[in-house]
DNA sequence: CTTTATTTGTCCGTATGTATG
DNA sequence: ACATACATACGGACAAATAAA
């Protein structure tokens, strides 16, 4: 992916992942590995974590500590019900 | 058991096992199986092994290779006599 | 004796959490 | 943003020793 040098990479990556979720390319429960994403986007894992943190805040993904990061499904507890 | 996500599971499990030993729920010579404990606490065996390693360092339990892990009794060789 | 089950020891791989430069 | 290292946790697999059937 080509990055716009005027905006943060993590932001652009978060947008790209959002597109993939919305389009169904990343279905519910799909696992998003930080290491794999870092390799795919050619960035540091630290940058991927900034992107996934934003997606987590947006409620699009869910992270289970020490296990993995997944696309949120309708059955996931939203925490603020 | 419920885990405090801010502290390592192996640490909390070690504390729980310590309570059981102190209270007599796990008497002297009582056998602690890694596989059983992992199933009971709902964690990986690796996590149990980290907990038992700490208890072993604390001198509370004794592990006989390929045989089992047991609550230490007063007749056990402490190794530093 | 052989078979089966149990238990610890070890190693591999994967993933996130945290911390340091 | 990056590079690196280590800690924590899970899953699986296999070996070696032991015990019991």
- The number of distinct helices of chain A, counting runs of at least 4 residues, comes to 3
Major beta sheet, strand line-up of chain A: 1-2
Note the run of SSEs of chain A as H and E.
HHHEE
What is the averaged pLDDT score of chain A?
Answer: 95
General shape of chain A: globular
The number of distinct β-strands of chain A equals: 2
Task: Name the helicity range of chain A.
Answer: 40-55%
- Termini gap of chain A: 37 Å
Structural category of chain A is mainly alpha
Radius of gyration of chain A: 12 Å
Strand content of chain A: 5-15%
**What is the chains' assembly state?**
homodimer
Enumerate the spans of chain A where pLDDT stays under 50 for 5 or more consecutive residues.
none
Largest sheet composition of chain A: 2 strands, antiparallel
Structure description:
The structure is a homodimer of 81-residue chains. With 81 residues, chain A is mainly alpha-helical. Helix content of chain A is 44%, strand content 10%. The first copy, chain A, has 3 helices and 2 strands, in the order H-H-H-E-E. Chain A has helices spanning 9-23, 34-41, 45-57, and strands at 61-64, 68-71. Chain A has a two-stranded antiparallel sheet. In chain A, strand 1 (61-64) and strand 2 (68-71) form a beta hairpin. The first copy, chain A, is globular and about 35 Å long. The N and C termini of chain A lie far apart (37 Å). The model of chain A has no long low-confidence stretch (mean pLDDT 95). The chains hardly touch. The first copy, chain A, binds a DNA duplex (21 and 21 nucleotides) through helix 3.
